[in-house]
Write a structure and sequence with these properties.
This protein has about 110 residues and is an alpha/beta fold. The protein is built from three helices and seven strands, in the order E-E-E-H-E-E-H-E-H-E. The chain starts with a strand and ends with a strand.
Amino acid sequence: MEITGKDYKVWYDEGNSLVFLKGILRLDGIEEYKPIMDLLIGAISAESALAIDLRELEFLNSSGISMLSMFIVEVRNSGKIEITLQGSNKVLWQTKSLKNLQRLMPSMKLEFV
């Protein structure tokens, strides 16, 4: 599965249980993030553990952060998926926002490079 836009790319690597988000995501509202949310939901339906690699995601607007929050809540409520978010210490939004997402699901793992 892959979603490509002008400034971003999102894809699911089934063999490694990894979802990658790369580039700049400035979609307009939650509705425009629906295909990405669908990709994430599809990925967790096939896995018992999933990592989401955000290290090359330079920017994510508030709608995108809301979408990730809704996804984390969905995972938490399912109670059967182990999630790891991989972020970069060099990307400012990630250092703050990913820690806030962990408050929604304390068992979620955060890895910063």
